[in-house]
Amino acid sequence: PDGKLKIAEVRSRFESGVIGEEESNGKSKGGKGEFTYSKKKSDDSLLNHFLDVMNQLGFNSTKMDKSNKMFLLMEFEKIGKKPDKDATFTAKPCIYKRR
Predict the structure, then answer these.
(1) Which of 80, 79, 70, 76 is nearest to 50 (CA)?
(2) What's 54's DSSP letter?
(3) Contacts of 61 (CB under 8 A, 6+ apart)
(4) Are 79 and 59 in contact (CB under 8 A)?
(5) Rounded to an integer, what distance in angstroms lies between the CA atom of residue 89 and that of residue 57?
(6) What is the share, in percent, of the chain residues with pLDDT greater than 90?
(7) Which of 67, 72, 82, 23 is nearest to 50 (CA)?
């Protein structure tokens, strides 16, 4: 108990938008879908799932900073709860654009 955990994670791992998604919307060119850039607002359902899993592992969220456009900063505090060994979470892969 009384332990603290700080996590800085890339925001795109928790967002629903897909960059460079192949989308077919009835306007196919040569049998292929159109290549589009699709970025949606942040979908908090994946983030909420992460927070639920952290709670199952015995950590309570104390601070969440979403002000940075690239990273999410999270702080957790250990609670006296025994961790659930069946708790699982998989974040989306981090996609970087080569320059």
Answers:
(1) 76
(2) H
(3) 51, 54, 55, 74, 75, 76
(4) yes
(5) 11
(6) 38
(7) 72
